[in-house]
Write a structure and sequence with these properties.
Layout: H1 6-19, H2 22-27, E1 29-36, E2 45-47, H3 49-62, E3 64-65, E4 73-81, E5 87-97, E6 103-115, E7 118-127, E8 152-160, E9 166-171, E10 180-181, E11 184-186, H4 193-205, E12 207-223, E13 229-245, E14 253-259, H5 271-284
C-alpha cells in the first residue's frame, strides 16, 4: 500500500532503492513525472514512466550497492520544505561499486514534489560536504528564517465519538495555520504523555477523554530553502474516546468538528493524519 504521507512516500522510495526493486520504485512515481540529475554521472532530464524505468534499470545494471546487505544509500534526514506543501527534502550518502569493484561515495540531497500520492518531480544535488554534517553556527538576518534550537515533543489524539465520528480541529497558528488536523499540541515540562493529550483535548475541543493506546510515533521536520531546520516535532498520537464535555473550539483552534473517517476529503488533511486515522479505525474495531 502506497503511503498517503509525502514523507513516508519518500522513505518508501529509498527502501525500494536499497532493495534495487525496479517495479516498486517505478510504482511510486506519477505518470507525468520529471527527473533531473537523479542518476550517477548523468545530469539529464527524464520525463514519464518509460524513461525513468529505463534510467533506473541502467543505474542498477551499472552500479551495485556497496553497503551492508547490498544497500546503496543511507538517508540522514527526510523533511518537509516550508516553501510549499508537497515538497520533501532528503539528505543522503550514496556508496556503490561497479563491475570492476571500483567504489564511488557521494553525498547530497534530493527534492521531491509529491502530487496525488506519487512523486511528480525528483531532482538531486551532489555536495562535497557529508550530508547531515554540522556546517557551523548560523546567524539570523534579513532573508533568513529562525533556526530551531532542539526537537519539541508533541502529542495528538484520534478521538472517536460513540457513533464512530472522529474529532478534527482547524488550526489558528503556525505550523498548519488555517488547516484541519487532529487535536494536540506541545508537551509541557513535567507532564506525562497521557496527561498532555488529555489537557490538549480539554483546551482545544472542550472534551474530556479516556486516553488509550499509542497509534503512531513519528517525527515532522520542516526545513527552509537552505536546508536549515525551522521546526522539528516528535509526535505521539493516541487512540482516545470521549467520556465527557461538550465539543467547542477552544485555544489555538478556529473550529472543532466531528467527521466520518470515510468522508475526510473536504478537510484536506495531511497524508500522515489520514494514515493515522485509518490505523486508529482498525485498532478500534473489535477482534473478529
Amino acid at each position: 500500500m502506497t503511503p498517503a504521507d509525502p514523507l513516508d512516500l519518500v522513505r518508501a522510495f529509498y527502501q525500494a532503492l536499497n532493495r534495487s526493486d525496479l517495479d516498486a520504485l517505478v510504482a511510486l512515481y506519477h505518470p507525468s513525472c520529471t527527473l533531473e540529475h537523479v542518476f550517477l554521472d548523468d545530469a539529464g532530464v527524464y520525463e514519464g514512466l518509460d524513461a525513468l524505468r529505463a534510467g533506473w534499470a541502467r543505474e542498477f545494471g551499472q552500479w551495485a550497492g556497496a553497503l551492508t546487505g547490498g544497500s546503496r544509500i543511507e538517508v540522514d534526514r527526510v523533511a518537509g520544505i516550508e516553501t510549499g506543501w508537497g515538497w520533501v527534502r532528503a539528505d543522503w550518502r550514496l556508496t556503490v561499486r561497479d563491475a570492476g569493484d571500483v567504489r564511488r561515495e557521494v553525498a547530497g540531497h534530493s527534492h521531491f514534489w509529491v502530487e496525488d500520492g506519487r512523486i511528480r518531480r525528483h531532482r538531486s544535488v551532489e555536495t562535497r560536504q557529508r550530508a547531515g554534517a554540522d556546517p557551523g553556527p548560523r546567524t539570523e538576518g534579513p532573508g533568513r528564517s529562525r533556526v530551531a534550537a532542539q526537537p519539541v515533543v508533541g502529542v495528538g489524539a484520534v478521538t472517536f465519538m460513540d457513533d464512530g465520528r472522529v474529532v478534527l480541529v482547524r488550526r489558528q497558528h503556525e505550523p498548519l495555520a488555517g488547516q484541519w488536523s487532529l487535536p494536540g499540541g506541545k508537551l509541557e515540562l513535567g507532564e506525562t504523555l497521557e496527561a498532555g493529550i488529555a489537557r490538549e483535548m480539554r483546551e482545544e475541543t472542550g472534551l474530556v477523554v479516556d486516553v488509550g493506546p499509542v497509534v503512531d510515533v513519528f517525527d515532522r521536520i520542516l526545513v527552509d530553502e537552505r536546508g536549515d531546520v525551522r521546526y522539528h516535532f516528535v509526535l505521539v498520537d493516541f487512540l482516545c474516546r470521549t467520556i465527557g464535555g461538550t465539543l467547542a473550539a477552544g485555544s489555538d483552534v478556529v473550529e472543532a468538528v466531528l467527521a466520518s473517517p470515510a468522508a475526510l476529503e473536504p478537510y484536506r488533511l495531511a497524508g500522515k493524519a489520514r494514515d493515522v486515522i485509518a490505523r486508529a479505525v482498525t485498532m478500534r474495531r473489535p477482534p473478529g
